[in-house]
Model the fold of this input.
Amino acid sequence: MPSGQERALLQQHALLATKYFIQLIGVAATLYQQPHYWSQPYHNLALTGAAWVNELIHSHPDHIL
Done:
């Protein structure tokens, strides 16, 4: 059985490892979420129905064939 000093050192190491792990989870979550935070909407056209189809057909000749 470990002595009191060894046990305290083991607890301190376990606490430090837990802190590092929690920090790693936070960094991973931030990196995973970052592209969604800065994304720009690109389907924001206010047209619907026939006006939308007309915009698709007559807008840019290289995009819709």
Q: What stands out?
A: The mean pLDDT is 86. Residues 4-58 form one domain. The CA atoms of residues 1 and 7 lie 9 Å apart. The chain has one domain: 4-58.
